[in-house]
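Async update (no meeting this week)

Hi team, since we skipped the sync, here's where things stand on the single-chain job. The sequence we agreed to prioritize is pasted below, unchanged from the tracker. I ran it this morning and attached the output directly underneath so nobody has to dig for it. Comments welcome in thread, and please keep replies under the output.
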Amino acid sequence: MESMHRIRVLLVDDEPHILQFLALGLQNEGFEVRTAPDGERAIMEASRFEPHIIVLDVMMPGMDGLAVCRRLKAEGRDVAIIMLTAKDEIDDRVKGLMIGADDYMAKPFSFEELLARIQARLRNQFPSLLAEIRLGPFTIDDRKKEIAYRGAALELSPTEYKLLKLLVTKHGSVLSKTNILNIVWDYDFGGEDNIVEVYIRSLREKLGDKEHRVIRTLRGAGYRVDLP
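Output:
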């Protein structure tokens, strides 16, 4: 079974603080990460590491990111390349896409945006790698429609599965009852919104969450799952 910790990401940038920040963040998300400070090292690491995703800065001394992208794509590597460009350098974005880059981001950017872009490339090019996702103490297996908590599989109804998956994958975000109803029960749900409270109560019982520390209630706002 493929899982998140086996997804390999290569970060290429000549700014050490950017490499350190991104590497730490992605490692905390469960990715296997390596870094390269320049284009030549990037080529060598790509050959050894065989990453699924390369986050590649355009502006680097020596071999720049465009040259690296061109060479890797010419070699026929099965890799998704996300180019990092300066804010106003539209030409770099166009050139990158024309030589085979799969996406680009303009600096400065948020870590959350990078994570979303990586997830989008994985869904598009490596969907089997996302069949099982580990997020904190949770493991979500979409093929089995099963969620494990601290290594133990939970006995969930289809609706409970959808609700818990939503809360866990959107961890850190507050989801209102309306949002939950629209996503889990679809937009044409005609019942009372207290159905959400009923299912939250059931999930808490199955998680042993008597003190509501796993699924938190924010009065007047909704529910949130915080992961370590």
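Quick observations from my side:
The mean pLDDT is 88.
Helices lie at 16-28, 39-49, 65-74, 90-98, 111-125, 158-169, 177-184, 194-207.
Reply here if anything looks off.
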